Amino acid sequence: MAENVGMTSPRLPWAGRLLALSCILLSAFNLRTAVTSLTPLLDSLGQTFGFGATMTGVFGMVPTAAFAVFGVLTPRLAHRIGLERTALLSMLLAAAGLLLRSCAGGTGGLLGGSIVALAGMGIGNVVLPPLVKRYFPDRVGTVSTLYITILQLGTMLPALAAVPLAEAAGWRVSLGIWSLLAVAAVLSWLSVLWQERRHEGVLAAIHDRAVAPGDEAPELIVAPARGRVWRSPLAWGMSFMFGMTSLITYTMFTWLPKLLAESGASEAFGGTMTALFAALGLLGALLVPGWAVRVRNPFPLVAACVLAYLAAFAGLWLAPMQWPVLWVILLGLGPTTFPLALTLINLRTRTSGGSAALSGFTQGVGYTLSCTGPLLFGVLHEVTGGWTWSFVFLVACVGLMLAGAWQACRPRMLEDHW
After folding, report:
1. Helix count (H) and strand count (E) of the chain?
2. CA dist., res. 145 & res. 214, Å (int)
3. Is the same domain home to 183 and 205?
4. 212 DSSP β-pair partners
5. Residue 170 banded pLDDT, cuts 50, 70, 90
6. 332 and 354 in one domain?
């Protein structure tokens, strides 16, 4: 059955849009590779370059900081140069950063390359949803599920392959090989832009209908009511729910391999557990959006996620190597609140302007709140010499997430607060 999203144009042929679909899916795969290809190797890279727990925390902080900054900057850029060119820029930065990082001669080069790559990935976070809307208005749900699934694979596979690749070919190959997929995405977007420049084919026709003089990305709405979002308890609840979920997720991406290594596990095992943690996000991405639209108040799901988090934290703190797979499975079920938060952005707004305003506020404030998590977790570990206060910090973050979710899940609309 076709998905009705208010199309005014007739059904478009799949054949003419396969290139756009390949661009979107290739870009989606590249949105997290800079994060999970690095974290399983941070312990050994720390020994190579001579950095400790604090610098490891900085590496964990950079992704959410980049996503926050470039989440704010991207809409203005896309209005000026267009969604497709912005997506091309995103993948160029991702490829360049991944290559620069693989050539690093020290901690500064490693960090600089990561920042460049993550800047591109932060831009990609913003432009992919409106690109889906532009090229697949009759299949928004289907293509969104596809690209979120591919994004999760792009999170899982680098973590799984990082240590085996480093052992077989060296850490530079392990970090740099993912740039090939970013280059493939660059070439795909260049093909789309070539078609649109020549005004030939289905993609060019879609582009020409979508853009307006002086506005190359009307799908990215700059809502006049954005300022009023700051006064909404719903918006702040969404921000804390999204932000604390991101904080815990990126803290665990950064520190789970090291935590297990200090408990006696191998680097390869740490990478495998990080991949398992990432893979469980795929389950939530596939199941939660469809379930959330059918329930009035999804708060019980958040409460279940909180219980999973607390059990995982207790296991990783008290007996990390006794049942590590169980602890990581429970840990991976916790971030089910991430796809729930993204779904609620649309379920708790009446208009596209409200959705744009709530999405920008939720992700901007949320990623800003979350960016210091990996650093604080590492500093607490370094200062105390153990993991107790680090996990106390995460438990406090879970409490903030629960309080935010109470506001976010209540059945009401953002516009009603205005």
Report:
1. 19, 0
2. 32
3. yes
4. 215
5. very high
6. yes
Interacting residues of 162 by C-beta distance below 8 A, sequence separation 6+? 36, 37, 38, 39, 40, 41, 174, 271
* Residue, of 219 and 17, whose pLDDT is higher: 17
pLDDT in tens, 33-52: 999 999 999 989 999 999 88
Which residues touch 353 (CB under 8 Å, ≥6 apart)? Answer: 221, 223, 224, 225
DSSP string, 21-46: HHHHHHHHHTTSHHHHTTGGGHHHHH
Q: Is the pLDDT of residue 3 over 50?
A: no
pLDDT score for 1: 35
pLDDT band at 328 (very low <50, low <70, confident <90, very high): very high
Domain match, 90 and 216 both? yes
Residue with tokens 């900081």: 65
Element (H, E) at 52: none
Residues 262 and 410 in one domain: yes
pTM for the whole structure: 0.84
pLDDT per position as a tens digit, 61-108 = 999 999 989 888 888 888 889 889 999 999 999 999 999 999 999 999
List the domain range (segments joined by +) for residue 166: 16-220
Give the other-Cβ count within 10 Å of 200's Cβ.
Answer: 11
Q: Is residue 75 part of a domain?
A: yes
Domain boundary among 180, 205, 220: 220
CATH number of the structural domain spanning residue 329: 1.20.1250.20
44, 60, 285 from 238: Cα distances, Å: 37, 23, 18
- CA atoms within a 13 Å half-sphere pointing along the CA-CB vector of 204: 11
Number of domains in the chain: 2
Q: How many Å apart are CA 407 and CA 233, to the nearest integer?
A: 7
- Residue 342 has which token pair? 């993204």
Q: Cα torsion for 93, 178, 27, 29, to the nearest 10°?
A: -140
